[in-house]
């Protein structure tokens, strides 16, 4: 997370001080790397498994087909 923060600060400074296209691209590259590093730290937020999920889809399909 510290590396991501350092990359984010460097990328922000490069984007703010960009005087040519190469500095802008390098700043965007640093910002993209920092977002990638920061996303690896967070765990996946997944919902619990719902066993009747397919049945809900079938009910929706059957009701929509019935009213057609």
TrEMBL record:
Domain Major facilitator superfamily (MFS) profile: start-end pairs: 1-68
Record keywords: Membrane, Transmembrane, Transmembrane helix, Transport
Entries under SUPFAM superfamilies matching the protein: MFS general substrate transporter
UniProt membrane topology term: Multi-pass membrane protein
Annotated compartments: Membrane
UniProt xrefs under InterPro entries: MFS_dom, MFS_sugar_transport-like, MFS_trans_sf, STP/PLT_plant
Chief place where the protein resides: membrane
Pfam families attached to this UniProt entry: Sugar_tr (PF00083)
Gene3D superfamilies for this protein: MFS general substrate transporter like domains
Record carries keyword Transcription regulation: no
Membrane-spanning parts: 6-26
Example of a GO MF term: carbohydrate transmembrane transporter activity
GO cellular component: membrane
The keyword Lyase belongs to this UniProt entry's keyword annotation: no
Family: Belongs to the major facilitator superfamily. Sugar transporter (TC 2.A.1.1) family.
Protein name listed in UniProt: Major facilitator superfamily (MFS) profile domain-containing protein
Protein source organism: Cannabis sativa
Classification of source organism: Eukaryota, Viridiplantae, Streptophyta, Embryophyta, Tracheophyta
């Amino acid at each position: 997370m510290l590396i991501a923060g350092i990359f984010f600060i460097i990328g922000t400074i490069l984007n703010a001080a960009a005087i040519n296209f190469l500095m802008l691209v390098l700043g965007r590259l640093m910002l993209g790397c920092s977002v990638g590093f920061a996303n690896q730290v967070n765990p996946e937020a997944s919902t619990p498994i719902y066993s009747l999920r397919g049945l809900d889809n079938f009910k929706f399909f059957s009701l929509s087909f019935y009213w057609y």
